[in-house]
Amino acid sequence: MPSSIEEPQPSSTTLEIPVTPATGNWLVELQDELGARQRPLAKDRVVVGTSSRADIVVNDPTVSSRHCALSVLGDGVVIEDLGSRNGTFVGSARVREAWARAGAAVSIGHSTLVVAVADGREAASPPGDPLEAVSGRSIVMRRLADQVRRLARHALPVLVAGESGTGKELIARALHKEGPRRTRPFVAINVTALPRDLVESELFGHERGSFTGAHARRLGAFAEAEGGTLFLDEVGDLPLDAQPKLLRALDGYEVRRVGSSGSGARADVRVVAATHAPLEQRVTAGQFRRDLFHRLECFVIHVPPLRERRGDIAAIARELLRQIAPQVGHRTLTTPALARLASHDWPGNVRELRNVLCRAADGTGRAGSIDASHIDLAIRRDQAPRPCGLTPDAARALLREHGGNLSASARAAGMPRTSFRKLLEP
Question: N or C: which end of the chain has fewer CB within 10 A?
Fold first, then answer.
């Protein structure tokens, strides 16, 4: 992709841009202080800036009145800086003129433009407001919010699929909060953290004396979530021998506690399950029952990774900095820093972004501004080492202290959730 890095004193260098006819219907998604919105791109040059005379008006005091211009050319879009005071960045590079393909993020001031090919849904009704507790104001996240609000009315199971760190539990909590069960309990169980010999007891309860260590009767997660929502995180790790009982509960049959000789009770529980790995692959490998898979996937919500919604990164980063300010102090992000964040692929998604911002803030010393150089160092730095003395037994104890919440336990341990999870493996 031809591009030109802008020097402190701009030269008159002109890029060689492929001259081919414009193809496809293009649009740009803008995220500024007013939120996210889409605008079509025609073959003609479109000026972006804060001026009311601009073709795309940006609400952002760090953007110039005529900041940059966009024009469709071939199977991409030409981005031209118009002498802006804070620069135009494509990826992490400050440019005078560049040619970008679909999905490219353009950073201007504190705002982001993402160029894309129209998918035909733009003519339909616009998406609604984003979810209050879920970071992300992009069009794709607002469509996800609409899906959550529709599915919240039902009592049928929902499978939330997405990479680690995308916020699947937040989506599950939103399903609960937006629905008629909001006043009833929300019970979260991380299947990976359950001892294999206690899975049935944790889910369905047990009678006193039913096994060694059962000193008292236990209700179990289904009973605790009665009338509300039971969230099963990483459901793909549920042992095979426990899967038939979960299927029976989902099919509306009686749930019986371990060691119970009497009849059980039907559970009035809405089950929301989450997985970071495709369950179809586990079904094929014989690790997950096909009938249970089809019961759980009645409705599926796919949570997109950060690299597929780069326009959200700047807003999420600012919110994360606000959250960690009590620990690291007040910090702001320069435009080059925001551009560097938008250019990274974030395999660890929001969790990785938070870690990078913590390290970048620490690297600034007492300074209040995070620049691109701080972000580069934070991204390249190895993951923080495991705290001294954190053995598998200590990790399980920490997990118990946090009520089985794997994410909270990993944060308390100061390590990625994937690394913390490995300590729990037998």
Answer: C
Residues 291-327 as b or e (16 or more Cβ within 10 Å = b) = ebbebbbebebebbbbbebbbbbbbbbbebbeeeeee
Which residues contact residue 47 at a Cβ distance below 8 angstroms, ignoring those fewer than 6 apart?
54, 55, 56, 66, 68, 69, 82
Measured CA to CA in angstroms, residue 139 lies from 31, 108, 166 at distances of: 10, 19, 16
What is the Cβ-side half-sphere exposure of residue 226, based on CA atoms within 13 angstroms?
10
pTM for the whole structure? 0.78
For residues 238 and 246, is the Cβ–Cβ distance under 8 A? Answer: yes
pLDDT at 87: 96
H or E element at residue 258: none
* Number of residues written out for the chain: 426
DSSP state of 96: E
Closest among 92, 69, 271 to 187, alpha carbons compared:
271
Rounded distance between C-alpha atoms, residue 189 and residue 404, angstroms: 6
3-state helix, strand, coil split of the chain in percent (to 5) is 35, 20, 45
Beta bridge partners of 49: 57
Contact residues for 353 (Cβ-Cβ < 8 A; gap 6+)? 306, 313, 316, 317, 320, 341, 346
Any long-range contacts for 13-20 (C-beta under 8 Å, 24+ apart)?
A: 13/96, 14/97, 15/96, 15/97, 15/98, 15/99, 17/73, 17/78, 17/97, 17/99, 18/73, 18/74, 18/76, 18/99, 19/73, 19/74, 20/73, 20/74, 20/75
| 142-179 tens-digit pLDDT | 999 999 999 999 999 999 999 999 999 999 999 999 99
Own/partner pairs, 265-269, CB within 8 angstroms, 24+ separation: 267/222, 267/223, 267/225, 267/226, 268/226, 268/227, 269/222, 269/225, 269/226, 269/227, 269/228, 269/229, 269/230
Token pair belonging to 254: 């009686």
**What's the rounded mean pLDDT across residues 331-353?**
94
Which amino acid makes up residue 303? V
In the three-class reduction of DSSP (H, G, I as helix; E, B as strand; rest coil), residue 383 is classed as: coil
Q: How many CA atoms lie within 13 A of 7 on its CB side?
A: 5
Strand order in the sheet with 186-190: 186-190, 229-233, 270-275, 158-161, 299-302
What integer pLDDT is reported at residue 317 of this predicted model?
95
